[in-house]
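FIELD: query
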Amino acid sequence: MHQVERALFDIRRGLPVLLRDADEAVLVHPLESVDEAAFERLAESAEMPTPALVLSRHRLARLGHRIDADSARLALPPALWHDTRRLHALAFGLEPEATDAEPLAASRAEQAALALMRRALLIPAALTRRLDGEARTAIEARIAEGALLGVAAEDAERCLESADGMLRRVSEARIPLAEASESRFILFREPDGLREHVAIVIGDSETWQRDVPLRLHSACLTGDLFASLRCDCGEQLRNAVAEIAALGGGVLLYLAQEGRGIGLANKLRAYALQDEGLDTLDADQVLGFGEDERRYGVAVDMLAALGVQRVQLLTNNPVKIAALAEGGIEVAGRQALYGRLTEQNYRYLHAKAHRAGHLLDDVLDGHSGSERA
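FIELD: result
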């Protein structure tokens, strides 16, 4: 996977990479950073075929195209080749951009391209060119010279799961907290170095309950640090620490999954779309993401490293219960965990409850607190 890790850094820097699958080779450029220089790089050989735009099924649905696959490609007419404004509108504009192009089946390499974009926390949209003949020979020569990077599509496809079973325990220290003075922070790093997660171990594990109180908390810079009123994340975080301490100690996993896994840049883009009238789930889908991009394999690995096998989970999200159970963690019980209902976060919580299945009836009915479910 070393080549994939290098490819992720190139993608984040706005550089193209070549994805290979059997006899196919596809030059991929992240749409987020497409500019005139990018078009020049993609058009260096006249032998290259027409460029295409690869989009997720979520974004294509917003454009009026329903597909069965996770992604598809749109062949771009010459009028769009250098029109970055219209390309960006096609990929993640609020209003659908008119195009006569019909979705075509994405190849394995093109599907893998969107996996790379997601892993790199970029908009899941890529400008691509399928290469053969002299065009491929020229690009392979550049790869041999070290000017470009080539990656197997199969490896790129797996990049979203690359951390499972490969977390590294890096460092730890005692960090007294206002709500839990006996706390230890343990940092885990994913193998590609892009994400770090923290296990906050509260109290003495020797005296914990058999069903260890556990909170899986996705990082939220705006809510956790700046007390944003658009969500209840900061209050949930502090309430979770206090509740775990009151229960005799346990674990809070602080996971690098900002914006339900889409990253801070895309979360801010989604907020801007919400200001135009969309709810939190629709805004993510306009950008090409699913309802929830988070994966919890890293949480299972962190619990294994801590020797935790049976938990009482502080959550309102049934998906977390299912994910832990699938990973071999016994969820003996669930405890509700709320923040305050406010004018600013009502739409957000309502969408989570009524569209994503979060168990928030009590708080939406005007109740709050940490009542047990």
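FIELD: remark
The first helix runs from residue 2 to 12.
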